[in-house]
Design brief:
Protein name: Tripartite tricarboxylate transporter TctB family protein
Pfam families: TctB
Keywords: Membrane, Transmembrane, Transmembrane helix
Radius of gyration: 19 Å
Distance between the termini: 48 Å
Number of strands: 0
Length: 143
């Protein structure tokens, strides 16, 4: 029964996500694909996966323990904090912090988690900003 609830919830999220994507305003100089296409593709994939879960549930699903639920809730809190800090702290600082915390929670030693967070942030910044030329949120340090 819990898989069916998860599938129904996923399907509802997919429908809401696709509907939200259709509300994205198009610029008169947008490319042929447009900014709506990628979110709609993600929504369709989520909807298809949810339908599969809804129609073919596991007989005996194994739910994680309360400790694992707390870890998942902590990861969600980190991602919400990341979204809130991104415009204030900038991409590099916010991403380094979120990556470090998530890496630490995955079992890395704290010092290595900080190093991994910084390197992950700088690597993503180099690929998306320097190579692909995308604009990322600027922080107080100017990048």
């Amino acid at each position: 029964m819990s898989d069916r609830i998860l599938g129904a919830a996923g399907l509802a999220v997919a429908i809401f996500y696709i509907w939200s994507a259709t509300l994205i305003e198009l610029s008169f100089i947008s490319d042929p694909v447009g900014p709506r296409t990628f979110p709609i593709i993600i929504g369709v994939l989520l909807g298809l996966a949810s339908i599969v879960i809804l129609l073919r549930p596991d007989a005996e699903p194994h739910w994680p323990s309360i400790g694992r639920f707390a870890e998942i809730a902590g990861a969600v809190v980190v991602m919400v904090a990341y979204a809130l800090l991104l415009p204030v702290a900038g991409f590099v600082i916010a991403t380094a912090g979120a990556s470090a915390v998530l890496t630490w929670r995955l079992g890395t030693a704290p010092l290595y988690a900080v190093i991994a967070g910084i390197l992950t942030s700088l690597g993503i910044y180099a690929v998306f900003h320097l190579v692909l030329g995308l604009t990322l949120a600027r922080g107080p340090l100017g990048f």
